[in-house]
Amino acid sequence: MAGPEPVTLAGGVVTLEPLHRGHTDELAAAVSDGRLWELWYTSVPTPAGMAADVEARLAQQAAGEMLPFVVRRNADGAVVGATTYMNLDLVVPRLEVGSTWTAASAQRTGVNAESKLLLLTHAFETVGCLAVEFRTHWHNQQSRAAIARLGAKQDGVLRNHRRMPDGSLRDTVVFSITDAEWPAVRSGLRHRLARHAG
Question: Which residue ranges traverse the bilayer (predicted)?
Answer without folding.
Answer: none
